[in-house]
């Protein structure tokens, strides 16, 4: 399993325009709010699992994600997290553009409002990714 997180150097110089455009990203400056920058309880990476740290919306942009997946022979991603209209969408689009198969797990993504969430799931399904129910993903994984 691969995990991503967001982290910026103090002042956010490594976040560029994205960091300046979205002041809420300040909470991800290293050392500023350790309570906000960890993983959700129960989803903490295990010692052998890889964590990719990103500074932009897509988990692919400016990271080693594509080369890590290629080196491991992985061709499909199950995508979860927040926000559907931001990081999820950017990651799914880049996943497709890098030649990987993006699967967005419907119940494992969210957004700050229902409208953008629904619209982005609709658009992702139409153009870039499969949007799949959690029960279907669990059933498939159990069959492996």
Describe the structure.
- The protein has about 140 residues and is α/β, with parallel strands linked by helices.
- The protein folds into 2 domains: about 1-55, no CATH class; about 75-144, Isochorismatase-like (Rossmann fold), CATH 3.40.50.850.
- About 35% of the residues lie in helices and about 20% in strands.
- It has 5 helices and 5 strands; from the N terminus they run E-H-E-H-E-H-E-H-E-H.
- It has helices spanning about 15-20, 65-70, 85-95, 115-125, 135-144, and strands spanning about 1-5, 50-55, 75-80, 100-110, 130.
- A 3-stranded parallel β-sheet has the order 3-4-5.
- Helix 4 links the parallel strand 4 (about 100-110) and strand 5.
- The longest helix is centred in the middle third of the chain and has 14 residues, at about 85-95.
- The protein starts with a strand and ends with a helix.
- The model has no long low-confidence stretch (mean pLDDT about 95).
């Amino acid at each position: 399993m691969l995990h991503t997180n967001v982290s910026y150097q103090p002042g956010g110089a490594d976040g560029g325009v994205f960091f300046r455009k979205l002041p809420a990203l300040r909470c991800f400056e290293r050392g500023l709010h350790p309570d906000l920058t960890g993983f959700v309880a129960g989803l903490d990476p295990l010692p052998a699992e890889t964590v990719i740290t990103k500074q932009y919306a897509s988990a692919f942009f400016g990271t080693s994600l594509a080369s890590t997946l290629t080196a491991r022979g992985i061709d499909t991603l199950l995508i979860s997290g927040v926000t559907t209209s931001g990081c999820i969408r950017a990651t799914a689009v880049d996943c497709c553009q890098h030649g990987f198969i993006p699967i967005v797990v419907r119940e494992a993504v969210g957004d700050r409002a229902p409208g953008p969430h629904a619209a982005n799931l609709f658009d992702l399904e139409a153009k870039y990714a499969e949007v799949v129910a959690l029960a279907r993903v669990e059933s498939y994984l159990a069959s492996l």
